[in-house]
Design brief:
CATH architecture of chain B: Alpha-Beta Complex
Distance between the termini of chain B: 37 Å
Number of helices of chain B: 3
Helix content of chain A: 10-25%
Structural class of chain A: alpha+beta
Mean pLDDT of chain B: 94
CATH topology of chain A: Ubiquitin-like (UB roll)
Helix content of chain B: 25-40%
Order of helices and strands of chain A: EHEEHEEEE
Number of helices of chain A: 2
CATH topology of chain B: Aldehyde Oxidoreductase, domain 3
Number of strands of chain A: 7
Oligomer: heterodimer
CATH superfamily of chain A: Beta-grasp domain
Largest sheet of chain A: 5 strands, mixed
Chain lengths: 77, 151
């Protein structure tokens, strides 16, 4: 399965990259996607996550072709 | 109902006027128009700010704003709504956000606008990075509470 992982704002700067393409053999949760993409980094807290541009939670399952995004609390307006 | 995310500066008053003319919404049931405009201050957290860069998540931003407007329209009888939000590099005094809501009665216009603005603040994926006069820059960590109790 191929999953696109995206990072935004301060998280993107901290990681030094804006996205990863992950190839996974099994169905994973959002939390497991983070662990695969960032084995050396604990998941930041607070964190917001989205799957296919809708808010999701860390235990949501990710399917082949999905886009998963991790980002800090939003500050628009 | 219209959502615009733009990298260009905009004049909110002109946008409202154009929108009212092209949609013709004032010819009929509208009895109340509520307008909120957020502009960039030249200070934040006690520090002088010389500008700001607004990052967003293209696609998700528009989608979340549309969801927020739909929520408001389910809760209050909204005739029309226009939300414009700036992204990219912004200077002090420039508009960041416009929320305009047209309803038949004032209470609905106030309440629906407030809902849209507060939901935008907590759900629309925008991130502010301030450029300070001191030449540093910093990410804004969280939005302020817009409703502090009256003193």
């Amino acid at each position: 399965m191929s999953i696109k992982v995206r990072y935004f704002a301060s998280l993107k700067e901290d990681l030094g990259r804006s996205e990863d393409i992950l190839e996974t053999a099994s169905l994973l949760t959002v939390r497991q996607i983070w662990q695969c993409a960032n084995p050396q980094q604990t998941l930041p807290n607070p964190i917001l996550v989205a799957v296919n541009k809708d808010y999701a939670d860390l235990e949501s399952l990710v399917n082949d072709g999905d886009e998963v995004a991790f980002f800090p609390p939003v500050t628009g307006g | 109902m219209t959502v615009i995310v733009t990298g260009c500066g905009f004049d909110p008053w002109q946008e409202i006027q154009n929108y009212q003319q092209t949609t013709g919404i004032l010819d009929g049931q509208v009895g109340a128009t509520n307008v909120f405009i957020g502009t960039l201050r030249d200070f934040n957290d006690g520090t002088a700010v010389k500008g700001m860069t607004l990052e967003h998540y293209p696609g998700m931003t528009e989608r979340q704003l549309e969801i927020i407007i739909s929520e408001a329209a389910r809760q209050w009888p909204v005739i029309d709504a226009l939300v414009i939000h700036r992204v990219g590099d912004i200077l002090p005094n420039e508009p960041i956000v416009l929320v305009a809501v047209w309803t038949s009665h004032r209470g609905d216009a106030f309440d629906a606008s407030r809902h849209i603005m507060e939901a935008l603040k907590s759900k629309a994926p925008f991130w502010k990075k301030e450029r300070l006069v001191s030449a540093d820059s910093r990410w804004v960590k969280e939005n302020t509470n817009g409703y502090k109790p009256a003193q």
